[in-house]
User: What shape does this take?
Amino acid sequence: MLVEGSDHARPARLAASVLRLIAAPFEIRGKQVQITGSIGIALNGPGVASAEELVRNADLAMSAAKSQGKGQSELYQGRMHREALRRLDLKAALESAIADERLEVHYQPIVRLSDGLITGFEALLRWFGDDDEPVPMDEVIPIAEESGLIVQIGRIVLQRACAQARLWQMDPSTAGIDIAVNVSAWQLESGSLLADVRAALQESGLPPSSLIVEMTESALIKENLPTIRALRELRALGVRLALDDFGTGYSSLSHLRQFPIDILKIDRTFVASVARRREGALVRSIIDLGRTMNVAIIAEGIETAAQADELEAMECTLGQGFYFGRAVPAEAVGELLTIGRLPARPARRPRARSA
Ligand code: C2E
Ligand code: MG
Ligand code: MG
Assistant: This one.
């Protein structure tokens, strides 16, 4: 749509009316249907060289609007073009990192809160750029998802993590170690996850019950058949399922009812403020919920002894976070395993449960 005139606020007003109109429910064959739209707005001006550039800018703004969620409009800004270029660069660099086998998997310990005993590790992807600086995963994962590279990357992480866990299990002192691997919605929908998990287990010889597949609530939002089937089939293999970042997504409770979940991971935003009254009460109720539903609870992002103590007093059994250890390469894990307990100090004395 072309809007003429010099009133710069007019396109936004128009966009809002269009979105409202689109969002109005209507009927198809007696069923109520509702759709949403996303609108990008670009203004013509001295910086715009051609009609093509104006349309491209509007397109970039529309992508930005889409990523904000449903039914939004966005005005083009110069940074959107720079960000699009950066994403393209990163995607190309990621492709060559895969080809050159430069992606790494690091391992963060998961411990029993009562005594710091390491019960397993979460495998976390790591990618060090040409400058040897780690590229933040919050940036890498969305690009990997957008480009479909996540399926390939997911396969690599699964293979390595399962093989590594099997190696640790060969040592009698660490025979019971579990390994948790993150998967994204894309992998669930791609249809290859089950085959990839099966192959990783078979090649490594890792028992399925030692593998935990973590997914976030947003991965489960699309309650579509392929996703539900993938989860059921994984579970039938004997693999356990964990709901990651619990409490940050939507309709958490309905997910718990619908999906065959074994473990809830309490998001670190709750853990960070566990000492506060309201947040503490929330954490306590998630722990109670887990107990009622026979689901194990892992508190994520524990950074201080006080948080660990607080959670333990709430009878949360497992935890993970910088206080116990960051994600490290497999070589460094060997050292952690010889210590066996984290932090490397005598087991905490059992404390009386606070009222
Ligand atoms: P996540 O699965 O919830 O992983 C935990 C994240 O929290 C990790 O960030 C970890 O380094 C960080 N973390 C752990 N303890 C603490 C703490 O005490 N304080 C703070 N501030 N942070 C802590 P990371 O590695 O940057 O990963 C971010 C997210 O990227 C992960 O969140 C996960 O959703 C995704 N991700 C990482 N590796 C993979 C992968 O192999 N595949 C997929 N699909 N996603 C992955
Ligand atoms: Mg995770
Ligand atoms: Mg998490």
Summary: Residues 10-76 form one domain. The pocket of C2E (ligand 1) is lined by residues 108, 124-125, 137-138, 141, 150, 154, 157, 182-184, 214, 244-245, 268, 300-303, 321-322, 327 (CB under 6 Å). Confidence is low (pLDDT under 50) at residues 349-355. The longest strand covers residues 103-112.
